[in-house]
Amino acid sequence: MKNKQFLLKTRPVGTPTRDNWDYVETEVPELADKQVLVKVAFISLDPAMRGWMNDGKSYIEPVQIGAVMRASTVGQILKSNDPKFQVGDYVYGHCGVQQYAVVDTQGLHKIDPSLAPLERYLGVLGMPGMTAYFGLLETGLPKAGETVVVSGAAGAVGTVVGQIAKIKGCKVVGIAGGADKCRYLVDELGFDGAIDYKSENVKKSLKALCPKGVDVFFDNVGGEILDDVLTQIRMKARIVICGAISQYNNTTPVKGPSNYLTLLVNRARMEGIVVFDNVANYPKAAAEMAGWIKEGKLKAKEHVVKGIERFPETLLMLFKGENMGKLVLKVDAE
Amino acid sequence: MKNKQFLLKTRPVGTPTRDNWDYVETEVPELADKQVLVKVAFISLDPAMRGWMNDGKSYIEPVQIGAVMRASTVGQILKSNDPKFQVGDYVYGHCGVQQYAVVDTQGLHKIDPSLAPLERYLGVLGMPGMTAYFGLLETGLPKAGETVVVSGAAGAVGTVVGQIAKIKGCKVVGIAGGADKCRYLVDELGFDGAIDYKSENVKKSLKALCPKGVDVFFDNVGGEILDDVLTQIRMKARIVICGAISQYNNTTPVKGPSNYLTLLVNRARMEGIVVFDNVANYPKAAAEMAGWIKEGKLKAKEHVVKGIERFPETLLMLFKGENMGKLVLKVDAE
User: Fold this and answer.
1) Of A241, B181, B212, B322, which one has the fewest beta carbons inside 10 Å?
2) pLDDT digits 0-9 by tens, A222-244
3) Which one of A247, A264, A272 has the shortest CB-CB distance to B241?
4) Chain A hits for B271, Cβ within 8 Å
């Protein structure tokens, strides 16, 4: 049985290119005890992947040179050496960028394709959804009537952050790139406002849309946008640092927030989050989110690209801001 | 009655110079109701003064052009139009950089020169002491056994932060400029270690002195030192942003912390403080600090410069790092 895989060949300097990958065909190995063979259906494309390609200490080990690229996936079990998993079961796990994966069952979770499309378990019902839920509610601590701003607002995490903030009674403004995304946020997801950072002066638009200032800023992008929002924060504001996608492909040092002293003036807080810390509470959060989806309060959107061979270019869509909603790669071309 | 005063003449670009000030002699005005005449004895020199000289929104109004420079002071009442204040009383208040002040009694607090030297009410027993106490204990939240690092460690706030952290059972490392200051921190104040940023590689020295990493960083200086400490923080670290004296005279934008994404990796927090928020709890804090002083656990140090006419140069000592302990200006030359 043949398996197509993307291996990390070299560590990128700046934006990853096709040369950083080896696209190979290998034999699927035999299963050891407590292992299963998974046919991967959808591969999650996440900004964090860029960090995993770098060497050096982070919240997770870097991907080793020559190893299959790490990725969250959903798929179906074709063979099982663990009585807890049956052939035919659908599972979520880190199976990597490949067609077939032989993996330990320890990191796998069963999912139910009758409740939601498979790819949704990589978005609203998966890590991005959990990141939005815990990051906003436990670190952002929004109160009804407060103003919540989210950057990367049309992305997998941002769309969920904004919708949960609306559910909690906040005024919500999203920052995104392009008129289509901004229209989508307001017209489809019910945001109170949206700022197109590609065509607008973010600081001026924030002043106009949030005249009382910003209570909670959920930041996925860093760079100039973080600095612009810092000029508009209110007293005791909470800034949730979820990511900094604008900086991940830098060949120069990360741009630190020059305006961080507004934290002092406003007695405000900037705090980093990593979703894995909340793993014990995922089921409770997932149940609440499923309820909101059922009630129509929380809309899910996935951006599906087809064909595993398109992985390198598809990953770059994240950094170019070309996706709307959760970006996933369907392994099969059809 | 003649009164010598420093008025803000122009707003400085970069480091203030003598040309930014008008040193004038004026008549002392008559007292209105609820006003007193104060003979200023000591003037506090604080990094925050540089910010007050700038135009623009901050946590407090800028000093207006032509106005007496704002300053915390201690002095004695010479005339009173308020029955609550008697001639001869000693008071703390914002009397400004001048020999005599006619002020409303609303912002004045009586102080007792028999309990401590007058100038101490501008240091450990005043704003810097309160800043250290509340910033460290309520925002830094140090626990016994944790590692606390403080920058500007030999300054008015830093000396107190380090000593309180020791009282609370923490390991304490100070960052200061010069061998004398570092020796003072370790030998006189009981810090566990000190790093001379002028002659050492701060990052390397931090690694050596804090091998488990930094739990609490109390930052008075910003710039490169903040960035260096960010590389050494532990999980769930708390960074207290009290000031950024390295950046106050910049003519280029403030250097934002390039390494702020270590907040994310470490689920850490950076939070700004302004001491005035705790005004209701000053008496409780002052009582506890006085107890520590009496027990010999908290040492006070003031750096006294004599003669009001030396105000412009004395203020600059803060930015050159020339003071050890709380810098105050004695109004009289003797």
Assistant:
1) B212
2) 999 999 999 999 999 999 999 99
3) A264
4) 263, 267-270
| B270 contacts in chain A (CB < 8 Å) | 260, 263, 269-271
Co-location of B270 and B131 in the same domain: yes
**Inter-helix orientation angle A282-294/A156-167, to 10°:** 70
Let me know whether B222 and B322 are in one domain.
no
Residue of A nearest to B221 (CA): A261
The mean pLDDT value of chain A amounts to 96
Q: Are residues B117 and B133 in the same domain?
A: no
Element containing residue A283 per DSSP (H, E): helix A282-294
The amino acid occupying position A178 is: G
Q: Based on the domain organization, do A132 and A194 belong to the same domain?
A: yes
CA distance B223 to B214: 18
Residues B8 and B106 in one domain: yes
pLDDT at B37: 98
Distance set, CA B238 to CA A134, A135, A236 (Å): 20, 17, 16
Interchain contact B19–A (C-beta under 8 A): no
Q: For A300, phi and psi rounded to 5 degrees?
A: -105, 145
Which chain B residues in 272-311 lie under 8 Å from chain A, judged by CB atoms? 272-274, 277
Per residue in B209-237, pLDDT tens?
A: 999 999 999 999 999 999 999 999 999 99
User: Do both A25 and A112 map to the same domain?
Assistant: yes
What is the C-alpha separation between B317 and B296, in angstroms, rounded? Answer: 29
Enter the ipTM. Answer: 0.89
Note whether residue B150 is domain-resident: yes
B chain contacts of residue A262, beta-carbon cutoff 8 Å: 272
C-alpha A294: how far from its chain's center?
22
Q: Which residues contact B133 (CB under 8 A, 6 or more apart)?
A: B160, B164, B285, B288, B289
Q: Which of B141, B157, B261 is the best residue to mutate to test the A interface, defined by the most A CB atoms within 10 Å of its own CB?
A: B261
Domain span at residue B55? Answer: 2-123+301-330
How close, in Å, is residue A168 to chain B by CA atoms? 24
